[in-house]
Amino acid sequence: MIHAPRRHQAAFASLLLVVGLVACGSSDDGASDAKSTTTKAADAATTTTTEVDDGACAIYPLEDMNTQMGVDDVTAESTSDDPPTCTYTSDAHYLSAEVSTLTQEQFDATPRDPSAFLTGDAAASATVLPDPGIGDESFAYAMNGGVMVVGRVGDVGYSVLATNAGGGDDAGNWTDDDTMVASATAIIDSIISHS
């Protein structure tokens, strides 16, 4: 099992904090309408935990996130009210995705190039990616262990921050930046098509 070095995880966590502060202005950690249920499959000896959320997590189905990540243990939790954000996590596979709905102002404030606010190794590892072609306007970038894809239709934007802190066989479908960008783009496209 290969894991990203802790310094890369810390650098990416710093990116998340800066992006959140710039794009959102504030965060309401712990905000959650989630109700957790546990079910046991009759024909299997496994237990599956499913999070049901009437708030931010209603934007993208948990089953679809399992498919995108290529795993079967994803949980979801509403982690912010401003912007509405749902964090999907696969603990067994070291994967996570933050899916946010952005106002026009938040979309405009989201940095297009992360190297503008990062320093040192974190800035050196940041890469602006080709436009993913979502809606009216979109952009994407990568940094060690994750990608950010942002798209807008009209005055509503959506962002997906996909991270992979693991590697090798434990990474599900998200083995590299390209697969994470493809999944993040598909997630936003799906949200837009169901809006």
How is this structure best described in words?
The chain has helices at 6-24, 62-69, 104-109, 120-125, 177-193, and strands at 35-40, 47-52, 75-81, 84-90, 95-103, 127-129, 137-143, 146-153, 156-164. A hairpin with a 6-residue loop joins strand 1 (35-40) and strand 2 (47-52). By secondary structure, the protein is α+β, with helices and mostly antiparallel strands. It is built from five helices and nine strands, in the order H-E-E-H-E-E-E-H-H-E-E-E-E-H. Helix 2 (62-69) packs antiparallel against helix 5. It has a seven-stranded antiparallel sheet, with helices on both faces. The chain has a two-stranded antiparallel sheet with strand order 1-2.
List keywords for this structure.
195 residues, alpha+beta, seven-stranded antiparallel sheet, two-stranded antiparallel ribbon, 29% helix, globular
Quickly describe the structure.
With about 200 residues, the chain is α+β, with helices and mostly antiparallel strands. The chain is built from 5 helices and 9 strands, in the order αββαβββααββββα. Strands 3-4-5-9-8-7-6 form a 7-stranded antiparallel beta sheet, with helices on both faces. It has a two-stranded antiparallel sheet with strand order 1-2.
Write the layout of secondary structure elements.
Elements (H helix, E strand, L loop, with lengths): L5 H19 L10 E6 L6 E6 L9 H8 L5 E7 L2 E7 L4 E9 H6 L10 H6 L1 E3 L7 E7 L2 E8 L2 E9 L12 H17 L2
Intertermini distance: 39 Å
Strand content: 25-35%
The count of strands amounts to 9
- Name the overall outline: globular
Could you give the order of strands across the largest sheet?
3-4-5-9-8-7-6
- Report the uncertain regions: 1-53
| Count of separate DSSP helical elements | 5
Biggest sheet features: 7 strands, antiparallel
Q: Provide the structure class.
A: alpha+beta
Rg measurement, Å: 16 Å
* Helix amount: 25-40%
Mean pLDDT: 77
What's the SSE pattern?
HEEHEEEHHEEEEH
